[in-house]
Design brief:
heterodimer; A: 226 residues; mainly alpha; MetI-like fold; B: alpha/beta; 6-stranded mixed β-sheet
């Protein structure tokens, strides 16, 4: 009997990460898209770091910062009673750092591609930046929103290095699908590894296909209109 | 009564220049603003609306919109603005574009009727022609019953027949709602139909010309 717990963990992790990142990244991406401040490039570079950084490097630093004997780790543990090393909660926090650019960048690009005058028309209608985001900007970047949500989810399901560094491989707690595959190969259980790997492959492909089909259809629909 | 004395540094066609405006506008004026591309006509409208920062002073009916210390936010200025590219809210229907600005349903219906787009009220604005879009944009600009209507080349992307028809509509709205209007235009015939005053933006300054000057433009 195949144990699907690692998949359940992977999806739970991806779902929570996507949810948290959506809430955090939406106002941030909106602010970035509207900002012309001199610190914007600095923030953009920091946000994009997880794309270029080896996951082991990011994982290493997070491990150091989360450790109970570090100031941050100690602070979080004494304030919230939360341990972030080798726990599922720690995985969620680490994943939020790791997947941040995958949520922020599509949203920011979407907002920046909107007609500037449409945003201004909303301000001229007396609407606050927040109302403008909710009722004008967000409904007009649906393909970008879809991309951001799905890519963040898929990217979190696919993470390996960061998870291994911060979470280790505790069954039922931090042993997600990608880590499980690695361990199965190590002990030469290729049969189960094949099944896990095929499932991840199929799923990743389906996710990407969904995004492209959605955006393609939408483009065609608008194409007919114009 | 609107009083303005504004300065703004601009990168114009001949390098850096300081656009300066010192004018006053009376209630009911229809001012057509002409001048070469890049002279700063749009910037003038945008400064009044609060869309662009500028140094100086703006007062509208005794209310200070801007002085050395304070600038009234865009949201609190009683301005209707019509963009050249319509800038409608693409995710909304025709009527929603109006009621998003203000939930005043009778006014929305009245404006739809004046603009002859009442049959399109539930249609997505993505499905409209250019002329229809600009009718919606005009109606939307009046939904807050603004003191000041600012229009940045509202008709220049339309064909001549539609321009003529819509300029009549603009005239009707201006009179019916007792508006004070500033409109940027390149079209002499349009200016002759609508203007009660004529401004030219040239050499980084805004100068008033007599309306007769339009005749010389037309035949010169």
């Amino acid at each position: 009997m195949i144990d699907f717990t690692p998949f359940v963990l992977s999806f739970k992790l991806a779902f929570l990460t996507t949810l948290i990142l959506f809430v955090v990244a939406l106002p941030y991406a909106w602010w970035l898209s509207q900002s012309q401040g001199k610190y914007k490039p600095l923030l953009e570079a920091l946000t994009a770091l997880p794309i270029v950084l080896p996951p082991s490097v990011l994982g290493f630093y997070l491990l150091v910062v989360f450790a109970p004997n570090s100031p941050v780790g100690h602070f979080i543990e004494s304030l919230f009673g939360m341990k972030l090393v080798f726990t599922f909660t720690g995985l969620v926090v680490a994943s939020c750092f790791y997947s941040l650019p995958f949520m922020v960048q599509p949203l920011q690009n979407g907002f920046e591609s909107l007609n500037r005058h449409m945003i201004e028309a909303s301000y001229l209608a007396g609407k606050s930046p927040w109302q403008t985001l909710r009722y004008v900007a967000l409904p007009n970047i649906k393909p970008s929103l879809m991309t951001a949500l799905i890519i963040t989810f898929a990217h979190t399901v696919g993470e390996f290095g960061v998870v291994l560094m911060v979470g280790g491989s505790i069954p039922g707690e931090t042993k997600v699908a990608s880590v499980a595959i690695y361990e199965l190969v190590e002990v030469m259980e290729y049969g189960t590894a094949h099944i896990y790997a095929a499932m991840l492959l199929g799923l990743s492909f389906l996710v990407l296909l969904t995004v492209y089909v959605y955006n393609h259809r939408r483009k065609n629909r608008l194409g007919m209109v114009v | 009564m609107i009083k303005m004395a504004l300065q703004k540094d601009l990168h114009g066609s001949e390098g850096l220049m300081t656009l300066s405006v010192k004018q006053s506008v009376n209630r009911g004026d229809f001012i057509v603003i002409m001048g070469e591309s890049g002279a700063g006509k749009s910037t003038l409208l945008r400064m009044l609306a609060g869309l662009e920062a500028a140094k100086g002073f703006v007062e509208v009916d005794g209310e200070v919109w801007q002085d050395e210390k304070n600038r009234l936010p865009i949201q609190q200025r009683s301005v209707g603005f019509v963009f050249q590219d319509f800038a409608l809210f693409d995710n909304m229907s025709v009527k929603e574009n109006l009621t998003f600005v203000s939930p005043d349903n009778p006014l929305a219906e009245e404006l739809l009727e004046i603009m002859e787009i009442e049959k399109l009220r539930d249609r997505s604005v993505l499905l409209l022609s250019g002329g229809q879009k600009q009718r919606v944009a005009l109606a939307r600009a009046l939904m807050r019953r603004p003191k000041l209507l600012l229009m940045d080349e509202p008709l220049s992307s339309l064909d001549p027949r539609m321009r003529h028809k819509l300029s009549e509509k603009i005239k009707e709205l201006h009179e019916r709602f007792g508006m004070t209007t500033l409109m940027v235009s390149h079209d002499v015939a349009e200016a002759k139909r609508l203007a009660t005053r004529l401004w030219f933006v040239e050499n980084a300054e805004v100068t008033e010309y007599p309306l007769d000057y339009l005749e010389s433009l037309e035949y010169g």
